[in-house]
Amino acid sequence: MNIKTIAVIGAGQMGSGIAQVHAEAGYEVYLYDISGKQVEKGLESIQKRLERNAAKGRMTVEDQEKTMGNLHASYVLSDVSRAELIIEAASEKMEIKKAIFAQLNEEAQETAILATNTSSLPITEIAAETTRPDRVIGMHFMNPVPVMKLVEVIRGLATSGETTKAIMDVIQTLQKTAVEVQDSPGFAANRILMPMINEAVFTLHEGTADVEGIDNVMKLGMNHPMGPLELADFIGLDTCLYIMEILHEGLGEDKYRPCPLLRKYVKAGWLGKKTGRGFYEYN
Ligand code: CAA
Protein backbone atom coordinates (compact mmCIF):
# COMPACT_ATOMS: atom_id res chain seq x y z
CA MET A 1 0.00 0.00 0.00
CA ASN A 2 1.22 3.47 -0.81
CA ILE A 3 0.37 5.69 2.14
CA LYS A 4 1.19 9.37 1.63
CA THR A 5 -1.71 11.23 3.17
CA ILE A 6 -2.99 10.80 6.71
CA ALA A 7 -5.99 12.21 8.51
CA VAL A 8 -5.99 12.46 12.30
CA ILE A 9 -9.35 12.71 14.05
CA GLY A 10 -9.09 14.56 17.36
CA ALA A 11 -6.62 17.40 17.93
CA GLY A 12 -6.04 16.97 21.67
CA GLN A 13 -2.70 16.05 23.22
CA MET A 14 -2.54 12.59 21.60
CA GLY A 15 -3.99 13.62 18.22
CA SER A 16 -1.69 16.60 17.82
CA GLY A 17 1.32 14.46 18.81
CA ILE A 18 0.32 11.81 16.25
CA ALA A 19 -0.13 14.51 13.58
CA GLN A 20 3.27 15.98 14.43
CA VAL A 21 5.27 12.76 14.13
CA HIS A 22 3.65 11.88 10.78
CA ALA A 23 4.25 15.40 9.39
CA GLU A 24 7.89 15.18 10.53
CA ALA A 25 8.21 11.88 8.66
CA GLY A 26 7.02 13.57 5.44
CA TYR A 27 3.33 12.58 5.28
CA GLU A 28 0.67 15.11 4.31
CA VAL A 29 -1.47 15.36 7.44
CA TYR A 30 -5.03 16.66 7.86
CA LEU A 31 -5.79 17.37 11.52
CA TYR A 32 -9.52 17.34 12.25
CA ASP A 33 -11.50 17.97 15.41
CA ILE A 34 -15.20 18.47 16.03
CA SER A 35 -14.14 21.80 17.60
CA GLY A 36 -12.43 24.14 15.13
CA LYS A 37 -10.80 25.95 18.06
CA GLN A 38 -9.16 22.68 19.15
CA VAL A 39 -7.67 22.26 15.65
CA GLU A 40 -6.03 25.72 15.99
CA LYS A 41 -4.83 24.86 19.50
CA GLY A 42 -3.41 21.52 18.33
CA LEU A 43 -1.50 23.15 15.47
CA GLU A 44 -0.20 25.90 17.77
CA SER A 45 1.12 23.32 20.24
CA ILE A 46 2.90 21.50 17.39
CA GLN A 47 4.39 24.79 16.14
CA LYS A 48 5.70 25.56 19.65
CA ARG A 49 7.25 22.10 20.05
CA LEU A 50 8.93 22.31 16.65
CA GLU A 51 10.27 25.81 17.39
CA ARG A 52 11.71 24.48 20.66
CA ASN A 53 13.31 21.55 18.81
CA ALA A 54 14.83 23.94 16.24
CA ALA A 55 16.04 26.34 18.98
CA LYS A 56 17.71 23.41 20.77
CA GLY A 57 19.39 22.26 17.54
CA ARG A 58 17.36 19.03 17.39
CA MET A 59 16.03 19.94 13.93
CA THR A 60 16.84 22.55 11.28
CA VAL A 61 14.61 25.59 10.73
CA GLU A 62 14.03 24.25 7.18
CA ASP A 63 12.75 20.92 8.55
CA GLN A 64 10.59 22.80 11.03
CA GLU A 65 9.00 24.81 8.19
CA LYS A 66 8.67 21.72 5.99
CA THR A 67 6.89 19.87 8.82
CA MET A 68 4.45 22.76 9.36
CA GLY A 69 3.89 22.83 5.57
CA ASN A 70 2.84 19.16 5.71
CA LEU A 71 0.14 19.94 8.28
CA HIS A 72 -3.34 21.09 7.26
CA ALA A 73 -6.17 22.27 9.49
CA SER A 74 -9.31 20.33 8.73
CA TYR A 75 -12.76 21.56 9.72
CA VAL A 76 -14.95 19.07 7.85
CA LEU A 77 -14.83 15.32 8.36
CA SER A 78 -15.22 14.76 4.60
CA ASP A 79 -11.51 15.77 4.29
CA VAL A 80 -10.76 12.17 5.32
CA SER A 81 -11.53 11.20 1.72
CA ARG A 82 -8.05 12.58 0.86
CA ALA A 83 -6.29 10.08 3.15
CA GLU A 84 -5.05 6.52 2.69
CA LEU A 85 -4.74 6.17 6.48
CA ILE A 86 -7.05 7.70 9.07
CA ILE A 87 -6.06 7.63 12.74
CA GLU A 88 -8.80 8.32 15.26
CA ALA A 89 -7.67 9.87 18.56
CA ALA A 90 -10.97 11.15 19.98
CA SER A 91 -12.44 10.57 23.47
CA GLU A 92 -12.13 7.13 25.04
CA LYS A 93 -15.83 6.36 24.89
CA MET A 94 -17.15 3.42 22.92
CA GLU A 95 -20.29 5.26 21.69
CA ILE A 96 -18.18 8.16 20.38
CA LYS A 97 -15.72 5.84 18.64
CA LYS A 98 -18.49 3.77 17.10
CA ALA A 99 -20.22 6.89 15.73
CA ILE A 100 -16.92 8.18 14.29
CA PHE A 101 -16.07 4.84 12.65
CA ALA A 102 -19.53 4.58 11.08
CA GLN A 103 -18.98 8.05 9.59
CA LEU A 104 -15.42 7.30 8.49
CA ASN A 105 -16.66 4.19 6.74
CA GLU A 106 -18.95 6.42 4.65
CA GLU A 107 -16.48 9.22 3.94
CA ALA A 108 -13.14 7.43 3.51
CA GLN A 109 -11.72 5.93 0.33
CA GLU A 110 -12.77 2.32 -0.08
CA THR A 111 -9.20 1.08 0.36
CA ALA A 112 -8.28 3.39 3.26
CA ILE A 113 -7.12 1.93 6.56
CA LEU A 114 -9.05 3.09 9.64
CA ALA A 115 -6.92 3.03 12.79
CA THR A 116 -7.83 3.89 16.37
CA ASN A 117 -5.49 5.14 19.06
CA THR A 118 -7.67 3.61 21.77
CA SER A 119 -5.76 2.62 24.90
CA SER A 120 -8.08 -0.24 25.84
CA LEU A 121 -11.39 -0.45 23.93
CA PRO A 122 -11.89 -3.61 21.83
CA ILE A 123 -10.79 -3.11 18.20
CA THR A 124 -13.08 -5.93 17.04
CA GLU A 125 -16.16 -4.12 18.37
CA ILE A 126 -15.13 -0.79 16.78
CA ALA A 127 -14.41 -2.57 13.46
CA ALA A 128 -17.90 -4.10 13.49
CA GLU A 129 -19.31 -0.59 12.85
CA THR A 130 -17.73 -0.65 9.39
CA THR A 131 -18.06 -2.73 6.23
CA ARG A 132 -14.26 -3.15 6.15
CA PRO A 133 -13.22 -4.79 9.45
CA ASP A 134 -10.20 -6.24 7.61
CA ARG A 135 -8.90 -2.66 7.26
CA VAL A 136 -9.50 -1.58 10.88
CA ILE A 137 -6.61 -1.76 13.34
CA GLY A 138 -5.37 -0.34 16.67
CA MET A 139 -2.39 2.05 16.67
CA HIS A 140 -1.78 2.80 20.34
CA PHE A 141 0.73 5.62 20.72
CA MET A 142 2.23 6.44 24.13
CA ASN A 143 2.18 9.86 25.77
CA PRO A 144 4.11 12.12 25.01
CA VAL A 145 3.89 10.88 21.42
CA PRO A 146 6.92 12.77 20.03
CA VAL A 147 9.17 11.26 22.73
CA MET A 148 7.97 7.69 23.27
CA LYS A 149 9.38 5.07 20.91
CA LEU A 150 6.62 2.45 21.17
CA VAL A 151 3.44 1.97 19.18
CA GLU A 152 1.26 -1.00 20.12
CA VAL A 153 -0.38 -2.43 17.00
CA ILE A 154 -3.58 -4.27 17.83
CA ARG A 155 -5.17 -6.71 15.44
CA GLY A 156 -8.93 -7.11 15.66
CA LEU A 157 -10.53 -10.44 14.87
CA ALA A 158 -10.83 -9.61 11.16
CA THR A 159 -7.77 -7.35 10.65
CA SER A 160 -5.89 -8.58 7.59
CA GLY A 161 -2.19 -9.35 7.35
CA GLU A 162 -1.93 -6.75 4.58
CA THR A 163 -3.36 -4.02 6.84
CA THR A 164 -1.03 -5.01 9.69
CA LYS A 165 2.00 -4.97 7.39
CA ALA A 166 1.09 -1.52 6.01
CA ILE A 167 0.82 -0.13 9.54
CA MET A 168 4.08 -1.75 10.69
CA ASP A 169 5.76 -0.08 7.67
CA VAL A 170 4.31 3.34 8.53
CA ILE A 171 5.52 3.04 12.12
CA GLN A 172 9.01 2.23 10.92
CA THR A 173 9.04 5.47 8.90
CA LEU A 174 8.22 7.33 12.15
CA GLN A 175 11.37 5.80 13.64
CA LYS A 176 9.31 4.12 16.30
CA THR A 177 9.08 0.46 17.24
CA ALA A 178 5.85 -1.46 16.73
CA VAL A 179 4.79 -4.35 18.93
CA GLU A 180 2.00 -6.47 17.51
CA VAL A 181 -0.57 -7.64 20.07
CA GLN A 182 -3.94 -9.34 19.98
CA ASP A 183 -7.25 -7.72 20.91
CA SER A 184 -7.46 -8.48 24.63
CA PRO A 185 -8.49 -6.19 27.55
CA GLY A 186 -5.80 -3.53 28.09
CA PHE A 187 -3.81 -5.04 25.19
CA ALA A 188 -0.22 -5.52 26.46
CA ALA A 189 0.89 -2.03 27.57
CA ASN A 190 -1.98 -1.24 29.93
CA ARG A 191 -2.39 -4.87 31.02
CA ILE A 192 1.05 -4.51 32.58
CA LEU A 193 1.23 -0.79 33.44
CA MET A 194 -2.17 -0.19 35.06
CA PRO A 195 -2.02 -3.01 37.65
CA MET A 196 1.38 -1.61 38.68
CA ILE A 197 -0.12 1.87 39.14
CA ASN A 198 -3.16 0.38 40.94
CA GLU A 199 -0.83 -1.56 43.25
CA ALA A 200 1.08 1.65 44.00
CA VAL A 201 -2.24 3.27 45.01
CA PHE A 202 -3.02 0.25 47.27
CA THR A 203 0.46 0.62 48.80
CA LEU A 204 -0.41 4.23 49.63
CA HIS A 205 -3.97 3.37 50.73
CA GLU A 206 -2.72 0.76 53.18
CA GLY A 207 -0.09 3.15 54.59
CA THR A 208 2.87 1.01 53.60
CA ALA A 209 4.72 4.07 52.24
CA ASP A 210 3.96 7.70 51.37
CA VAL A 211 3.62 9.23 47.89
CA GLU A 212 7.25 10.32 47.52
CA GLY A 213 8.48 7.04 49.05
CA ILE A 214 6.51 4.92 46.58
CA ASP A 215 7.71 6.96 43.61
CA ASN A 216 11.32 6.90 44.80
CA VAL A 217 11.20 3.10 45.15
CA MET A 218 10.37 2.77 41.48
CA LYS A 219 12.51 5.67 40.20
CA LEU A 220 15.68 4.96 42.14
CA GLY A 221 15.19 1.25 42.68
CA MET A 222 13.94 0.25 39.24
CA ASN A 223 15.17 3.15 37.06
CA HIS A 224 11.68 4.16 35.93
CA PRO A 225 11.73 7.76 34.58
CA MET A 226 8.64 8.60 36.67
CA GLY A 227 7.28 6.94 39.80
CA PRO A 228 3.89 5.20 39.40
CA LEU A 229 1.91 7.90 41.26
CA GLU A 230 3.55 10.73 39.32
CA LEU A 231 2.86 8.77 36.13
CA ALA A 232 -0.79 8.24 37.16
CA ASP A 233 -1.13 12.03 37.61
CA PHE A 234 0.46 12.51 34.17
CA ILE A 235 -1.91 10.02 32.47
CA GLY A 236 -5.00 11.21 34.41
CA LEU A 237 -6.51 9.34 37.35
CA ASP A 238 -9.88 9.08 35.56
CA THR A 239 -8.14 7.33 32.65
CA CYS A 240 -6.30 4.98 35.03
CA LEU A 241 -9.57 4.08 36.78
CA TYR A 242 -11.37 3.60 33.46
CA ILE A 243 -8.70 1.21 32.19
CA MET A 244 -8.64 -0.73 35.50
CA GLU A 245 -12.41 -1.16 35.19
CA ILE A 246 -11.99 -2.53 31.67
CA LEU A 247 -9.35 -5.00 32.94
CA HIS A 248 -11.51 -5.99 35.93
CA GLU A 249 -14.62 -6.50 33.82
CA GLY A 250 -12.83 -8.10 30.87
CA LEU A 251 -10.53 -10.46 32.79
CA GLY A 252 -12.79 -10.97 35.79
CA GLU A 253 -10.11 -11.49 38.41
CA ASP A 254 -9.94 -9.73 41.78
CA LYS A 255 -6.32 -8.74 41.17
CA TYR A 256 -7.61 -6.11 38.70
CA ARG A 257 -10.03 -4.53 41.22
CA PRO A 258 -9.48 -0.74 41.21
CA CYS A 259 -8.17 0.59 44.54
CA PRO A 260 -10.89 2.44 46.53
CA LEU A 261 -8.49 5.36 47.02
CA LEU A 262 -8.21 5.74 43.22
CA ARG A 263 -12.02 5.89 43.01
CA LYS A 264 -12.10 8.45 45.84
CA TYR A 265 -9.62 10.76 44.10
CA VAL A 266 -11.60 10.57 40.86
CA LYS A 267 -14.85 11.32 42.73
CA ALA A 268 -13.15 14.33 44.34
CA GLY A 269 -12.20 15.61 40.88
CA TRP A 270 -8.50 15.16 41.71
CA LEU A 271 -7.62 13.83 38.29
CA GLY A 272 -3.90 14.60 38.30
CA LYS A 273 -1.87 17.17 36.37
CA LYS A 274 -4.77 18.31 34.19
CA THR A 275 -6.87 19.46 37.18
CA GLY A 276 -3.94 20.76 39.22
CA ARG A 277 -4.27 18.08 41.88
CA GLY A 278 -3.82 14.34 42.04
CA PHE A 279 -1.29 12.54 44.22
CA TYR A 280 0.73 15.74 43.85
CA GLU A 281 -0.30 19.39 43.57
CA TYR A 282 0.52 21.38 40.43
CA ASN A 283 0.37 25.16 39.91
N1 CAA B 1 5.52 16.63 24.48
C1 CAA B 1 6.58 16.60 23.69
N2 CAA B 1 7.83 16.48 24.13
C2 CAA B 1 8.02 16.41 25.45
C3 CAA B 1 6.95 16.44 26.36
C4 CAA B 1 5.66 16.57 25.83
N3 CAA B 1 4.57 16.59 26.61
N4 CAA B 1 7.44 16.33 27.61
C5 CAA B 1 8.77 16.22 27.50
N5 CAA B 1 9.12 16.25 26.20
C6 CAA B 1 10.45 16.07 25.64
C7 CAA B 1 11.12 17.35 25.39
O1 CAA B 1 11.86 17.24 24.20
C8 CAA B 1 12.06 17.48 26.57
O2 CAA B 1 13.22 18.15 26.24
P1 CAA B 1 13.29 19.79 26.31
O3 CAA B 1 12.72 20.21 27.65
O4 CAA B 1 14.73 20.05 26.19
O5 CAA B 1 12.53 20.29 25.15
C9 CAA B 1 12.43 16.04 26.88
O6 CAA B 1 11.24 15.29 26.54
C10 CAA B 1 12.78 15.80 28.32
O7 CAA B 1 11.77 16.33 29.11
P2 CAA B 1 11.98 16.88 30.58
O8 CAA B 1 13.42 17.30 30.74
O9 CAA B 1 10.93 17.91 30.84
O10 CAA B 1 11.64 15.72 31.54
P3 CAA B 1 12.11 14.21 31.56
O11 CAA B 1 13.52 14.03 31.15
O12 CAA B 1 11.69 13.70 32.89
O13 CAA B 1 11.23 13.50 30.47
C11 CAA B 1 9.25 12.29 30.02
C12 CAA B 1 9.85 13.64 30.46
C13 CAA B 1 9.71 11.97 28.61
C14 CAA B 1 7.75 12.48 30.04
C15 CAA B 1 9.75 11.18 31.01
O14 CAA B 1 9.52 11.57 32.34
C16 CAA B 1 9.10 9.85 30.78
O15 CAA B 1 9.48 9.11 29.89
N6 CAA B 1 8.08 9.54 31.60
C17 CAA B 1 7.28 8.31 31.45
C18 CAA B 1 6.26 8.52 30.37
C19 CAA B 1 5.44 7.30 30.15
O16 CAA B 1 5.55 6.28 30.81
N7 CAA B 1 4.56 7.41 29.17
C20 CAA B 1 3.59 6.36 28.89
C21 CAA B 1 2.32 6.69 29.59
S1 CAA B 1 1.16 5.41 29.38
C22 CAA B 1 0.46 5.71 27.92
O17 CAA B 1 0.66 6.66 27.24
C23 CAA B 1 -0.52 4.67 27.48
C24 CAA B 1 -1.88 4.74 27.98
O18 CAA B 1 -2.75 4.22 27.29
C25 CAA B 1 -2.27 5.31 29.28
Automatic annotation (TrEMBL):
Domain 3-hydroxyacyl-CoA dehydrogenase C-terminal: 186-282
Top-level division of the source organism's lineage: Bacteria
Keyword hit for DNA-binding: no
Pathway stated in the Swiss-Prot or TrEMBL entry: Lipid metabolism; butanoate metabolism
Keyword Chaperone attached: no
Annotated ranges, domain 3-hydroxyacyl-CoA dehydrogenase NAD binding: 5-183
GO MF annotation terms: NAD+ binding; oxidoreductase activity, acting on the CH-OH group of donors, NAD or NADP as acceptor
Record-level GO BP terms: butyrate metabolic process
Pfam families membership: 3HCDH (PF00725), 3HCDH_N (PF02737)
UniProt site positions, description: Important for catalytic activity: 140
Keyword terms, alphabetized: NAD, Oxidoreductase
Residues noted as binding NAD(+) in the record, renumbered to the chain: 10-15, 33, 92, 97, 119, 143, 274
NCBIfam families: PRK05808.1
Family statement: Belongs to the 3-hydroxyacyl-CoA dehydrogenase family.
Protein name: 3-hydroxybutyryl-CoA dehydrogenase
Source species of the chain: Sinobaca qinghaiensis
